[in-house]
């Protein structure tokens, strides 16, 4: 293989450009000796947590930290905080950990944290989603009083959401506490990171050159050509090519973005619970996994890693499904499609291209439905949120992180509760609502797990949603990062333990 | 002087028309940016929340009023803030536009230069290698998708031959492949246009005179045909420039260049009107400029071309 | 040479229609035990990532792809010729207005037009055809106008008018044949763009429905397999290339004749 020096490569490139006199050279960033080159499909567009989902990107990039976080095991653990206790009046007292510093060397104290959190709460609606506006007051340099607009027994979980990174507002912008600090920033395109000198273990870390690569194939090629040390994340179709190359390691890991299918219970054939149950039983989850070539059959609303995961998905039983439809009066016609009272059992199956796996699953599900005499027309929409909230579908394929902050109530109340803001199935169950209400006030972890599992079982019995697959994502690594273990979906990609082998 | 004034006025009118049409069209797309924004933050789109954000972004006013505000802001370089990213549009565009401009202008220049030369070679030897090559290029440009060609090029140049570092290299290294792909998809069309023009010149009476003066066919063709060919290519340049805008978008995504089009595709998905509007205004400005410069050049080259 | 091309064109169209009417298998039949299988007697072009027969999908996709081509071409030509005639033959103010409109349309960014149209109408063959027409009619209008202006100045046109031949009749007799060559050449170079535009839209995030196979959508669907199983991409690409060649041959026969000119 030909290896040209950078100068010669540049000369060659200039020669290639010779005919194009109009090139405007964009500003270049001075490169550090040996930074780790990390490619992601999304790079922060803003460094200010008040902007949209900037907080998520900042935490994922290893720049910012919250007061709490979700561990590899899926539990909520303190990070910048040391502990949190609920007072009798429903307010919370959060005690900060000792000796933490921002990347500019200033110590973290309660007053600064309160000012920043109140600023985010005022300006970013995402910070008001779970318990309304949170009001932070510094009681002493290490103690915060947190009052919530709506009472919550799980403030640590809420504070582990990405909307609450801790920061210090300066004239040059926000300064954070994560293992890396921003050296230079091109919004949405590139961030040069240097180890935060005030974070333990800084000397073992290398600078990071974080790049946006939008196309998965291009990312795989950049990894194969040796330009990348970490590629997050790779399309499954590129893995065989990458595995055949020396010096490239590919790791697959389960993520908490569950694939599911909402069934529109408001009207039509799917208002009939027998049809919904039959569909749920007719789907072979292992076939779905084979079609997308990665992942595990879903067992409930949550990935198996979570302590509150349940085993509620019915066993594959197409024969039973056919019988159930027959008994409910849906009789098979000559064309292989069932009907009842003149209504043909043909359903509108919708997916969206932002998650390509869902589009791949569409024809497989259509085949599974055809097996039990249900016809399906497939449709791809670019606007999943609109379709979902308008109810303009029969079956809607959906990818959702069901416990972004380690709290099962997130999915159960938001997506399955009668009054849930994203109750896409239009389903209503007093039993489930009661369980969700109990969950909202339960504080004992074991009790919360029990309630979450019972709620999943109640939902499974009525099947407003079919849980399909817990997908896996794939990360490519160069020799320098061969020891990196991915976990936590895309919430924690650059972590304190991202250390180069050299 | 009067001509220049009139051209300027026409230029301005055309630009206003395109931006106004885009303003209305973009807002006619299904999908409410405010509700999308709330959904992205897992916030329920309650009527109050939606209404509040609408007021914040000025989306509650009439279309005409919104356009007037936008136009005033655009002309005074106050391009507003993107509701989606929370960043000032001007800063975003200023950081990204140089990359897109380099790919677009570089690709156009390379296509015109290469296409002109290829067209000349094709006309000099009809049915020869250059003639066939230009035909193959012209047909494959419409049959092959740019992303596939780009990925194959990336595979060969960066992975197999390791000639360039298209992601982490110098700006020149990063631009070489996108420019090549953009140019590749236009060079055939330009070459065909140039070839036809050279062939027309080859049949003109002055060519026979030139041949009788003892010039070789090739030299005579170059000496007497190039002005006519240049005029013809200039006339065909604006549609080519319009295609290149689309090609640049695909090239930016395939080669991970942090240009404008990459953001525009996101902006369509998130209904980021503010960014889309700035993009359309800039692209219209660039295309009208190409058109105007080409027209000016034609007038310079050929006094018979009317204003 | 020319006859060979026309034969090729006819062959493509006939094969496409036959494929649409009598598909060589079920394009939707999934067989996850035989994914990405190489060509075999049972599957002449092999199978795709879901074990579906590639040839059957190609055949089923022919109809929608030809539809995209037909819509794109007829809309572009119709708009272009109508606008061009208005510029050259219409009354002064109308001519000026249409000419300015065409010049403005030249400056409309294709990408945004296509993305917006796809968002409005849904990505699919018809949308792609319309998107192509929306951005491509202007150069046709300007070319047609230029040709017509030159023709109207010719003696035979004035003679025809002097003879009292009705305008539409004279138009048909003299102008249509004169227009066919140059406009055909333009159209021949643009025709297949309508089909690939579907793939380009998909690449930019607007996927077409995979439930109805179509060549452009297939390119997009099989895009991830460029390196793993290039066969999947080469099949629709080959079909589109044949279509492009065929369109070129039928619409631009002059190219061949001209090439042989001294």
How would you sum up this structure, described in words?
The complex is a heterotrimer of chains A (502), B (307) and C (262). Chain A has helices at residues 6-16, 54-60, 110-123, 155-159, 216-224, 239-243, 273-282, 285-292, 318-327, 356-371, 384-390, 409-416, 430-441, 445-462, and strands at residues 36-40, 68-70, 76-78, 81-86, 92-96, 134-140, 143-148, 168-170, 173-175, 180-186, 190-195, 208-212, 230-232, 248-254, 257-263, 296-297, 331-332, 338-340, 343-344, 346-351, 375-380, 395-401, 465-470, 472-478. With 502 residues, chain A is an alpha+beta fold. In chain A, strand 2 (68-70) and strand 3 form a beta hairpin. The longest helix of chain A has 18 residues, at 445-462. Residues 15-32 of chain A have low confidence and may be disordered. Chain B has 13 helices and no strands. Chain B is globular, with a radius of gyration of 24 Å. Chain C is elongated. With 262 residues, chain C is mainly alpha-helical. The longest helix of chain C has 36 residues, at 54-89. Chain C has helices at residues 2-21, 54-89, 92-106, 110-121, 125-152, 155-162, 167-190, 193-203, 215-222, 230-251, 254-259. Chains in contact: A-B, A-C, B-C. Chains A and B meet through helix 1, strand 12, helix 5 and helix 11 of A and helix 2, helix 5, helix 7, helix 8 and helix 12 of B.
Tell me about the largest β-sheet of chain A.
7 strands, mixed
Shape category of chain A? globular
Please tell me the overall pLDDT of chain B.
85
Order of helices and strands of chain B: HHHHHHHHHHHHH
Total DSSP helices of chain B: 13
Hey, which two chains have the biggest interface? A-B, 67 and 68 residues
State the total count of DSSP E strands of chain A.
24
Level-2 CATH architecture of the largest domain in chain A: Roll
The CATH superfamily of the largest domain in chain A bears the name: Dipeptide-binding Protein, Domain 3
Main sheet summary of chain B: none
Helical/strand content category of chain A: alpha+beta
Beta strand count of chain B: 0
Percent of residues in β-strands of chain A: 15-25%
Identify the overall geometry of chain B: globular
**Beta strand % of chain B:** under 5%
Mean pLDDT of chain A: 90
